[in-house]
Design a protein that fits this description.
The complex is a heterodimer. By secondary structure, chain A is of the alpha/beta class. Chain A has eleven helices and 19 strands. The chains are: A alpha/beta, B alpha/beta. At the A-B interface, α9 and α11 of A face α3, α10 and α12 of B.
Chain lengths: 452, 558
C-alpha cells in the first residue's frame, strides 16, 4: 500500500468515485468525483491530534461496529494516503450546525478546511482495471442462525477484529455479550456517579447523611425545603442503579473469554436460497482463525462445521491437518440447522452429523459465521456506467480463457470483483490485469513499445 | 579525519506523537553537545514543507555534510529525507534516521523521563554512525530487453505471447518435440466447454507465427549464468548447442500426472486414470455402462500430503462428458471433499448432479475396494457398505512436480517446496516472483492450476517480467554488500550458499578464488557480512566500523 502511495507514476485518488466513462480502448475519458474530506491532504501530516480532541464519537466501521471512532478519522491506521477525513454527518460543525471547530483549532498544520467542496477530476486513460472487491454477506437474513439476535454469534470479519491485537479487545476473545454488558455497566456507573456527586453536595449543604434524610423524609419528618424532593429522587435513582449494577457486576466478574468456538461454513454460500456458488476462501480463513485463537490461548477448542473442507492451495491441506493435530480443531461434517441460546447467553448449535447420522447439539462460547463473498453493492451501477456484463451471480463477467477481460475492450477486472478468490490469486490477477492493460495500451500505440 | 564533519540534527515533535511523550526541547539541547554536531533544530513536523526547507537551508547555510533526523520510521519517511538532502546538494546517503517515535515515544508513553533518556541514547548513536557515513551512488545496470520462457505448455505460450505483443523478443524453450504440454493429452476443457486440441492448435499457431518469438522445441537448457538484466543461456536443440542472452526468465515447466502403479488394481485398461480417460475420449475408445471414479488416489495421504487442487474438477468435467454422451451411463464419484471452489466450479458440480452423477463420500480410513465387477465402498449416511457395479474405474491422481525441477532450481538458484514444486518469493505478496529478482513462475510448475488460473498466472508472470524490461535500466538503492577486504576473502563460498538472492558468486582472480558481489541483485540484507569468518564482506551503509561506533556511543553513555 505504501509502495503504491509513494510510486511516482501512481496518482492516487482516494475517497473518489467514477461518475462517467466515455471513449474506447486506447482513449477512455473518465469523470471522477473526488469527495470533500474537509482536510487538505497536502497539508495534513496525519499526526492525529484532531482525532484525540474531537468530541463526537460514533461506531467504527473498520472494527465492524465493535469499537468506536471520532467524527474526524482515518479508516484504519495504515491507510494511504496518510491523512484524515471528516464524516460530515456526525461532525458537530458540519452536520449538526453546532459551534465546534475544535479540530481546526488543534491542527497545527492548518489542514482543516470546512469549506472544502467535491471536485470533479477529468482523466484520460488507455485502459481501465476494475478492482472493486466484494461485500460480506449479511447473515441476518438467515433467521435460524440468530445473527443480530444472539449476541455471541458473530461474522468471521467481526471475529477477525476481536482477534486483532489492534482491534477493540486487543486480541482477547471477549464475548460480544460481555462487551455489551460492560457498556451497560459503564452507563449505570456514570449515572450513579452523577447522582452521588449531587447527593454529596446536598449532604454537605444540609449537614445530614442521605440514609438519615430518607428515613425522615419517608416518615414525613424532614420538614420543608426546596431541595428535598430532588434529594429524595436522587437517592431513589442511586439506589435503583446500585441494585441494577450488583447482578451485572457479578456476571462480569464470572465472565471468561471465549474458549470453545464453533465455525459454521457456507453461510450464504452453496445455499440455493442466497448464493449457489462457493466463496472459495472461507474454509481456510476459518482454519486460520481457529489456529490464531488457539495460539492466543491454548485452551481454546474449535469445531468447524462444513460440507467439504476446501483446502486446495499450496500447503493448505497440510495447514488444515496441523490445525487438527495441534490446535484443538475438530472438523465436523454437517450443516448446522439452527442456533439457539441458553440462559448464560451461550449459543447452541444444532446439526446432523453425517458421520454419526444423528441430530446432535453442542453448546459453545461463541459461534463464528463464515459469511459468503458477495458482489460489492456498487457493482450493478458501475457495470451500467461502463456497459459491462455481470455473470449470473452478479460479479463482473469474464471468460475462462481470457480471465481478466470484460466484454468491453480495454476494461479488465481482477480479484473478487470477478468472483471469490483468496489473496494470492487476487495478487496474481492484479499482475495479469496489468499485463493485459499494458498490452492494449502498447498495441494501441499510446506508449512507446519497450518503455523508457 | 581528513574531512571536517559537520552534522545537523533535526528533532521532530511529530505534533504530539513524540513531543507529547518525550521532552523534545531537551533532546535538541542535548544534541548540540554531541561530537561533530554544528546545527540543531526542533521541528513541529520535520516532514512538512517547513521542516524540509529547514533541512535544505541548513545544508547550504551551515555547510552541513551529514544530516540526522530523529523522528518516525524510515519505512515511511527515509526516502523523503534522503531526497531532500539530494535536492540541497548533499549525497543522499550521508543521511541517518533515528526512530524516536515508533520505537520510543509510542512504546514509552507512560515513562517520559526514561523514554527521553532512551531517545538521547538513540540520537547519540545515530550521530556517531553518521560521522562515518560515506557517499554512495545509485547502482545502475542495463537490462537486455529479451526474455526466456521455459516450458511450451499453455502457461509458457501465454506468457510468451503477452511479452511478444509488447515488443520484447522471447525465446520459448520446450524440451519435447511438440508444444502444448499436458493440454496435448486432454479432450474437453471446462468450464469454457471448448475442445482442448482446437484451443491448443490456435495458440501454437499464434506463437509460431509471432515475429518476436523464437520457438525452440526439442530443446534443453544446459547452462544459465548471470543475474537480472543479464543472463547468458546455453541451450541444446537435438544436440546442437546455441547461446543467447536475455534479461528475464519465466519458469513455466508444468507438472506431470501421477501414475497409480499398484493402487486400486490400476491396469490402464479397466482401471485407468483421468488422464487415460481423456485419451479414451479423444480416440473414441470410451465404452462403459457403469463408471466409478475414485478421488485422491495417491494424494492427501502420508506420502503426498497435498491436495492437487484440480482433480475434483477434472472428474466432474469428465463425468459430465460421459453423461452428455449417454445419460443412461451410470457415474459414481467417490470422494473425500469435493473441491469445487469458486463460482464456475461449484456451478459445474451442481450441473453434474442434475445430470445424475452420484457422489459418495468415503473415509480415508476405509478406502473403496476395487473388485472384479464392482467397487465396494462404505456409505456414511447409510452406515453400511455398498457394492457399486462397474465396468470402468477411473482414478483421479494428483499432479506431481516435473523431474527437471531440481536441476532447473539449481541452475537458477531458486527454491522448491517439500513436494518439489517451485516456491514463490512470498505466498501472498509475491506469488509469481522468486526471492531472486529476474526469475518468475506460473502455471503447474508452481502448483496444480486450472486453465483459467494458469492463463491468469502466465499473464501475471509476463507482467512482472516486463517491469525490468520496460525500464531498460535497473536502478538499485546502493545499500549493498561490498567486498571491503579482498585479501581477507578465502573464497570459501559460505556466503554464496547463504545468500537468499543469488547476489554473490565465486570468481577466479589473480589473487585466487574470491567472492564477487552482483550489486544489482543484492538487497543489502547483511547475511553474507555477518557470516563471513574473515570479515571480508561489509554492507556499505552498515559497515562494521559504523555499527561498532554506534555500540561504543551507546556504552559511553550521556
Amino acid at each position: 500500500m505504501l509502495d503504491a502511495g509513494r510510486h511516482a507514476k501512481i496518482n492516487l485518488l482516494a475517497y473518489s468515485q467514477v461518475e462517467e466513462v466515455s471513449g474506447e480502448v486506447g482513449a477512455f475519458q473518465l469523470k471522477v468525483r473526488k469527495k470533500a474530506r474537509y482536510v487538505n491532504e497536502d497539508l495534513c501530516t496525519g499526526c492525529g491530534a484532531c482525532v484525540e480532541k474531537c468530541p463526537s464519537t460514533v461506531k467504527d466501521e473498520f472494527d465492524v461496529g465493535l469499537g468506536e471512532r471520532k467524527a474526524i478519522y482515518k479508516y484504519f491506521p495504515q491507510g494511504i494516503p496518510s491523512t484524515h477525513c471528516i464524516d460530515a454527518e456526525n461532525c458537530r460543525q458540519l452536520g449538526q450546525g453546532k459551534k465546534c471547530g475544535i479540530c481546526a483549532k488543534v491542527c497545527q498544520a492548518d489542514a482543516i478546511d470546512y469549506e472544502q467542496q467535491d471536485q470533479l477530476v477529468d482523466l484520460e486513460v488507455g485502459a481501465i482495471v476494475l478492482a472493486t472487491g466484494y461485500d460480506v454477506f449479511d447473515p441476518s437474513v438467515i433467521p435460524e442462525y440468530g445473527y443480530g439476535r444472539i449476541d455471541n454469534v458473530v461474522t468471521a470479519l467481526e471475529f477477525e477484529r476481536l482477534l486483532s491485537a489492534s482491534g477493540p479487545t486487543h486480541g482477547h476473545l471477549d464475548r460480544p455479550s460481555e462487551l455489551a454488558l460492560r457498556v451497560e455497566i459503564a452507563a449505570l456507573e456514570k449515572e450513579l456517579q452523577k447522582a452521588t456527586r449531587q447527593i454529596d453536595k446536598l449532604e454537605e449543604k444540609h449537614g445530614k447523611k442521605t440514609a438519615e434524610f430518607v428515613k425522615e423524609f419517608k416518615a414525613g419528618k424532614a420538614g420543608e425545603d426546596g431541595d428535598f424532593e430532588r434529594w429524595a429522587g436522587l437517592a431513589e435513582k442511586a439506589a435503583v442503579a446500585e441494585e441494577k449494577l450488583a447482578p451485572l457486576k457479578k456476571r462480569d466478574a464470572a465472565a471468561h473469554t471465549a474458549k470453545k468456538l464453533a465455525f459454521i461454513q457456507c453461510v450464504g454460500s452453496r445455499d440455493f436460497r442466497f448464493n449457489r456458488f462457493c466463496s472459495s476462501y472461507c474454509c481456510m480463513h476459518s482454519v486460520k482463525e481457529a489456529m490464531i485463537a488457539h495460539e492466543h490461548d491454548n485452551e481454546t477448542t474449535s469445531s468447524i462445521f462444513c460440507m467439504d473442507l476446501r483446502a486446495v492451495g499450496r500447503g493448505f491441506e497440510e495447514y488444515k491437518l496441523r490445525g487438527g493435530e495441534s490446535a484443538n480443531i475438530e472438523y465436523v461434517r454437517g450443516r448446522v440447522a439452527e442456533i439457539t441460546e441458553d440462559e448464560s447467553l451461550n449459543p447452541i448449535a444444532w446439526y446432523e452429523s453425517t458421520t454419526t447420522r444423528q441430530v446432535e447439539h453442542e453448546t459453545f462460547d461463541m459461534v463464528v459465521l463464515a459469511t459468503a463473498c458477495v458482489p460489492s453493492a456498487g457493482t450493478p451501477k458501475l457495470a451500467e456506467l461502463m456497459g459491462l456484463k455481470l455473470d449470473e451471480n452478479g460479479f463482473f463477467k469474464t471468460d475462462p480463457l481470457a480471465p481478466l477481460d470484460t466484454n468491453r475492450a480495454g476494461i479488465f477486472v481482477c480479484g473478487c470483483a470477478q468472483g471469490p478468490m483468496d489473496i494470492p490469486e487476487s495478487v496474481v490477477q492484479a499482475s495479469s490485469a496489468a499485463a493485459r492493460a499494458a498490452e492494449v495500451v502498447s498495441m494501441a500505440g499510446e506508449v512507446a513499445v519497450g518503455g523508457s | 579525519m581528513a574531512e571536517d564533519i559537520r552534522i545537523g540534527v533535526f528533532v521532530c515533535d511529530c505534533g504530539s506523537n513524540i513531543a507529547g511523550y518525550l521532552d523534545c526541547p531537551s533532546l535538541a539541547e542535548y544534541s548540540e553537545t554531541l561530537p561533530n554536531v554544528v546545527f540543531v533544530k526542533e521541528n513541529l513536523y520535520t516532514c512538512s514543507e517547513t521542516g524540509i526547507n529547514e533541512i535544505k537551508n541548513a545544508i547550504k547555510e551551515e555547510k552541513l555534510n551529514r544530516v540526522v533526523v530523529a523522528s518516525c520510521s524510515p519505512r515511511t519517511h527515509e526516502p523523503l529525507f534522503r531526497e531532500s538532502c539530494g535536492e540541497a546538494g548533499l549525497n543522499p546517503y550521508l543521511f541517518e534516521m533515528v526512530n524516536i517515535r515508533d520505537q520510543c515515544s509510542w512504546v514509552h508513553m507512560q515513562e517520559r523521563e526514561e523514554g527521553t533518556n532512551k531517545a538521547r541514547d538513540l540520537i547519540r548513536m545515530g550521530v556517531a554512525k553518521a560521522a562515518l557515513l560515506q557517499p554512495q551512488e545509485p547502482i545502475q545496470s542495463e537490462v537486455d530487453p529479451k526474455a526466456l520462457v521455459i516450458g511450451g505448455g499453455i502457461s509458457g505460450m501465454t506468457s510468451a505471447m503477452a511479452l511478444a505483443n509488447r515488443g520484447y523478443q522471447v525465446f520459448l524453450v520446450e524440451k519435447s518435440s511438440e508444444m502444448g504440454g499436458l493440454l496435448r493429452n486432454l479432450h474437453k476443457l471446462a468450464p469454457a466447454n471448448v475442445d482442448a486440441q482446437e484451443l491448443l492448435a490456435k495458440q501454437v499457431e499464434a506463437v509460431s507465427n509471432h515475429e518476436n518469438i523464437s520457438l525452440l522445441t526439442s530443446t534443453t537448457i544446459n547452462e544459465i549464468q548471470g543475474y537480472i538484466g543479464h543472463y547468458e543461456v546455453t541451450v541444446s536443440t537435438n544436440g546442437v548447442a546455441q547461446d543467447f542472452g536475455v534479461g528475464v526468465i519465466i519458469i513455466a515447466t508444468g507438472a506431470k500426472v501421477f501414475r497409480p502403479e499398484g493402487l486400486f488394481n490400476y491396469d490402464g485398461k479397466r482401471v485407468i486414470t483421468q488422464f487415460d480417460l481423456e485419451a479414451f475420449f479423444r480416440n473414441k475408445k470410451f465404452k462403459a455402462d457403469n463408471v466409478v471414479m475414485i478421488q485422491c488416489v495417491g494424494a492427501r495421504n502420508e506420502e503426498r500430503k497435498y491436495c492437487s487442487r484440480i482433480c475434483c474438477m477434472i472428474a466432474i468435467k469428465n463425468a459430465i462428458v460421459i453423461k452428455e454422451q449417454n445419460p443412461e451411463t451410470s457415474v459414481h464419484i467417490l470422494y473425500r471433499d469435493i473441491q469445487a471452489y469458486g463460482t464456475e466450479n461449484e456451478a459445474l458440480f451442481q450441473h453434474s448432479k442434475q445430470l445424475g452423477v452420484r457422489y459418495i463420500k468415503y473415509d480415508q480410513e476405509r478406502p473403496p475396494e476395487v473388485q472384479e465387477n464392482a467397487v465396494k465402498v462404505y456409505h456414511h449416511l447409510l452406515g453400511r457398505e455398498l457394492e457399486i457395479p462397474q465396468d470402468l474405474v477411473v482414478l483421479s491422481t494428483p499432479l506431481i512436480a516435473g523431474e527437471d525441477n531440481e536441476a532447473l532450481s539449481k541452475l537458477l538458484r531458486v527454491t522448491l517446496d517439500a513436494n518439489k514444486f517451485f516456491l514463490e518469493g512470498h505466498v501472498k505478496l509475491k506469488p509469481l516472483d522468486f526471492a531472486t529478482d529476474g526469475v518468475y513462475l506460473c502455471g503447474n510448475a508452481h502448483y496444480p492450476a486450472t486453465l483459467r488460473e494458469a492463463i491468469s498466472q502466465a499473464l501475471g508472470a509476463a507482467s512482472r517480467a516486463s517491469i525490468p524490461l520496460a525500464k531498460g535500466v535497473m536502478t538499485v538503492e546502493p545499500i549493498v554488500s561490498v567486498l571491503a577486504d579482498e585479501d581477507a576473502c578465502r573464497g570459501c563460498g559460505l556466503c554464496v550458499a547463504l545468500c537468499p538472492y543469488s547476489a554473490l558468486e565465486i570468481v577466479q582472480t589473480e589473487k585466487g578464488r574470491k567472492v564477487r558481489v552482483i550489486p544489482v541483485a543484492c538487497k543489502g540484507c547483511g547475511v553474507c557480512a555477518s557470516t563471513c569468518y574473515q570479515h571480508a564482506l561489509d554492507i556499505n551503509v552498515y559497515t562494521d566500523d559504523q555499527v561498532e561506533e554506534q555500540i561504543r556511543a551507546f556504552l559511553t553513555g550521556s
